[in-house]
Write a structure and sequence with these properties.
The chain is built from one helix and eight strands. By secondary structure, the chain is mostly beta strands. The chain has one domain: Immunoglobulin-like, CATH 2.60.40. The strands form two sheets. A four-stranded antiparallel beta sheet has the order 1-6-5-4, with no helix packed on it. A four-stranded antiparallel beta sheet has the order 2-3-8-7, with no helix packed on it. InterPro entries: A-crystallin/Hsp20_dom, HSP20-like_chaperone, Small_HSP. Belongs to the small heat shock protein (HSP20) family. It comes from Algoriphagus machipongonensis. Pfam families: HSP20 (PF00011).
């Protein structure tokens, strides 16, 4: 079974013309956005599923990883610090604000062994799979 992305709280490409204009002016005029969706990579091998979020500049203490009723939610906040003496921003492309990404997880994981590690701007969440028991029996042909 594969991990399935739950839903995004705010789509990257707005579905209305006014939403597109809001996104254009908020991102291109230097106004920090209140919410954003970090890039996510999801992979799987024989032993585990792995989710990687690209969120540089966030403190470890600003993350929250929660598993409730089969839904893994990763949330946090990248704070914008406006009080920089002597700096005038001409362009502000980095996304700031709060984020939340949710995924439905398969039933074949060890929930108590989920691990999250934040290193070099990437949050890596590992969801170990339960070992599959191979049941093998010889059946006698009569």
């Amino acid at each position: 079974m594969k991990l399935v992305r739950f839903n995004q709280t705010e789509p990257y490409f707005p579905n209305t013309f006014s939403g597109m204009l809001d996104k254009f002016f908020n991102e291109n005029m230097g106004t920090p956005i209140k919410h954003f969706n970090p890039a996510v990579d999801v992979s799987e091998d024989e032993k585990s599923y792995e989710i990687q979020l690209a969120v540089p500049g966030v403190k470890k203490s600003d993350f929250k990883v929660d598993l409730t009723e089969g839904k893994l939610t990763i949330s946090g906040e990248r704070k914008f610090e406006e009080k920089k003496e002597g700096k005038n921003y001409h362009s502000l492309e980095t996304q700031y604000g709060s984020f939340s990404r949710s995924f439905y997880v398969p039933e074949d994981i060890h929930a108590e062994d989920i691990a999250a590690v934040y290193e070099d701007g990437v949050l890596k969440v590992t969801l170990p799979k339960k070992e599959k028991k191979v049941v093998k029996a010889a059946i006698e042909v009569k």
